[in-house]
Write a structure and sequence with these properties.
With about 240 residues, the protein is of the alpha/beta class. It has seven helices and 13 strands. The structure holds fe (ii) ion.
Amino acid sequence: MPAATAPSTPEPDGGLQPVAEGIWTQAGDRLRLAGIPFDTRAVVVRLPGGGLWLHSPVCPTPARVAALAALGPVAHVVAPNRIHGAFTADWAARAPGAKVWVSPRFPDRHPGIRHDALLGDTPPPDWSGTLDQCLFAGHAWLDEVVFLHRPSRSLIVADLLQRHDPAREAPLWRVLKGAFGLMAPGGGVPPDLRLTFRDRAAARAARDRILGWAFDRILLPHSVPVETGGKAVFARAFAWL
Ligand SMILES: [Fe+2]
């Protein structure tokens, strides 16, 4: 039933892990939000012009900054929802030439963070040749924009879908996250998010649009990626809608 799970090999600090041609992930630190531990991981896409598209950037240590610089200049910094932008300001400061893109409600929550444009339901010309995007509508407060990297058939989901790495969790968290179906090789939508959708028809429309995309892999900044069979994992995670 569950899709194959990638081995949970921690990358050396700063290291970029190739996903496919033109797309990498970059491991960050393990952080806590409201006491709950979780991993962080950026997704890096090299656009045809050579500029980098940086989704969910991690804490910018010198090694991580250098690893990205070796790949190309950061052209876009992307904060895909209003609670998922921990290091947006740090990267905006380090890459003054980059355009900072944030979710529609991000500026209300983070008025002090510079942004250049809001993410919408369709990709801007800056990356529409490489990436598609969908604003997952219908939630009371989460305004997540889900992306598709077309060349590698990779879906990129920030917080809506979680499948944490059993090898990285202490026993207590393994049990708790497992009880809510949030551990790999399964995975799902965290219960607090499930309970706070307000417009399920709008959410279903977003889900169905995403399911119409051609993808097989799912990259998850807090979780173990789905290497193959991603469409079934995504469909199962949102079947309750
Ligand atoms: Fe997040």
